[in-house]
Structures are given as structure tokens and as C-alpha cells.
Amino acid sequence: MSETHPDLEQQIAILKQQLAQAQKMTALGELVSTTTHEFNNVLMTIINYAKLGLRYKDDASRAKAFEKILAAGQRASKITNSVLGVARNRSDAFEPTDLCSLVEESMVLMEREFSKYRIQVDKQLNKVPEVVANGNQIQQVLLNLLINARQAVQERGQVLIKVEHDETSNTVDLVVRDNGAGIAAEKLRRIFDPFFSTKSGPDETGKGGTGLGLSSCRDIIDAHRGKIRVESSVGKGTCFTIKLPVAKKTPRRAPISSNSSEITAASVVSQ
Ligand SMILES: Nc1ncnc2c1ncn2[C@@H]1O[C@H](COP(=O)(O)OP(=O)(O)OP(=O)(O)O)[C@@H](O)[C@H]1O
Ligand SMILES: [Mg+2]
């Protein structure tokens, strides 16, 4: 096909680029709206405790007010840092990246949403070597997976985020597991297809339903020479694993492609 329709190939490449750009803008829009909400919350806390401190003159009330104001201020600074982290990374540069910090930064933006739905989030962030990555893009992947997980679990569901070093494949693995609805085998094959969605439209937080989330995750992970794998069991939950090669300066223990248990981005495993 590439020999017979070079124009068509070129057009597809341009459209893909435009789609990636549009997805980036959507992610940025979501980020801004989440951040604004988060910031507003923090400001309300600061204002209310400042009022409390002014109203009650005793030492205990004032100390409590100051503690709350301090904690809220520290949270506000975490939020700003997290957004600045994204802004710093707006370029398409691939650089040595610590996935654990990226998870922490992304979680600051999702915490409120998870607690609103009373979802319990467990983080297992092990010490891992750096990977060569575009932090902005990997954060977009992580947010897509977390939003999907949040939408798949009922209230009081559970989500696990794990970062660990797989020494056999010399990859850093990022795992997002939920105990939600799960995905039936016939759908599992299609979830990475562009526009495949089982959602009727955006939910009350304005997210979901275009069917582009996982397809953009796959494109991003492909561009990182990584792999994305999914395992799902109806009624029990879904687990996405992203494997990113460790940055080269760390000595490799095994060639990345020789491990037969690794699965390419488009492949799926249904339990
Ligand atoms: N964690 C999950 N649990 C259950 N089903 C899932 C999960 N993640 C994805 N899916 C299924 O895969 C489909 C495709 O996901 P994808 O993220 O690509 O699109 P979407 O969430 O429907 O819309 P959006 O592009 O806005 O994210 C979903 O509609 C859903 O059916
Ligand atoms: Mg989605």
C-alpha cells in the first residue's frame, strides 16, 4: 500500500499528527479544569480556617487554624508544581524520567475525583531506574487509565497503581488495576481501536465516551518502544500494564524483545 498510495499514506500521517495534537489539547483542557477545581477547594479551606482563627482567640483554635492553613498551602504548592511539571514537559523531548514522581504528580490531580466517588487508591511505588520518556505524554496515558478505572468501578471501588522494575525484561512496569466491571473477551479485542467505546457519552465530570483514550495510550507507548498489556475478568476487574525500557545508562540484564511473555500493544489477554 505504501508504494501504490504514497499520497494517502501521507494524508493519514498528517491526520494522525492532527489527532495527536487534538488529544493533547483535550488532555490539557481536562488538566486545567481539574486544577482549577482543586485550587478553589484549597482556597476555600484557607479562607475558612483564617476566619476561624480570627473568630476564636484561644491558642488551641488558632494553632489548629494555622496547621490547616499550612497544610492547604502546601497542597496548593503541590498542585502548582504538578501543573508546572506538565508545562515544562510541553516539548516532545524524551528524557530520563522517574515514573514514581510522575505518578505522584498525576495523583495530585486525580485525588479529589477519586475521593468524591469514595474510591480507595493504593499506591505501590517501588524504587525504579529511570526510563527515557516524555513525561507529558506518559502522564496523559496514566490519566486516561485512571479515568477509565474510576469509571469502571462503582462507588467504594478500589484502584491499585504500582511502579516496579521487571529485571527480566529490564523494563519499568506501570500497573493500573481496578476491581470494576471488567471487559468481556469480544470487547477486549477492540478496546485499543480508535472510537471504540461502550460509554454513552461524557459522564457528570465531562469525561469518557470518545473511544480515543486507549488508542492514544497505545500510540504513545509505541512511540516509547514500550508495550501495553491488558488482562480483564468480567465482574472482577481489569489490569493494564505498561512496560517501558529502562534508560540505557543502566546496564541491561536481558534484551528487551527476547522475552516470550511480553505482549505487543495491540495484543490482549482475557482471563
Ligand atoms: N478499566 C476498565 N474497565 C472496564 N472497561 C474498560 C476499562 N478501560 C477501558 N474500558 C473499555 O474500553 C473502552 C475504550 O476505552 P477508551 O479509554 O479508549 O475510550 P472511552 O473511555 O470510552 O472514551 P475516552 O476516549 O473519552 O477515554 C471503554 O469504552 C470501555 O468499554
Ligand atoms: Mg477512556
Give a concise summary:
By secondary structure, this protein is an alpha/beta fold. It has six helices and eight strands.
Task: Describe this structure as you would to a colleague.
The chain is of the alpha/beta class and 271 residues long. It is built from six helices and eight strands. It has helices at 6-55, 59-88, 99-116, 135-152, 185-188, 213-223, and strands spanning 95-97, 120-125, 131-133, 158-166, 171-178, 227-233, 237-245, 269-270. It binds adenosine-5'-triphosphate and magnesium ion. The site of adenosine-5'-triphosphate has 22 residues, from helix 4 and helix 6.
SSE inventory with pairings:
Blueprint: H1 6-55, H2 59-88, E1 95-97, H3 99-116, E2 120-125, E3 131-133, H4 135-152, E4 158-166, E5 171-178, H5 185-188, H6 213-223, E6 227-233, E7 237-245, E8 269-270
Helix pairs in contact: 1-2, 2-3, 3-4, 4-6
The protein binds adenosine-5'-triphosphate (ATP) and magnesium ion.
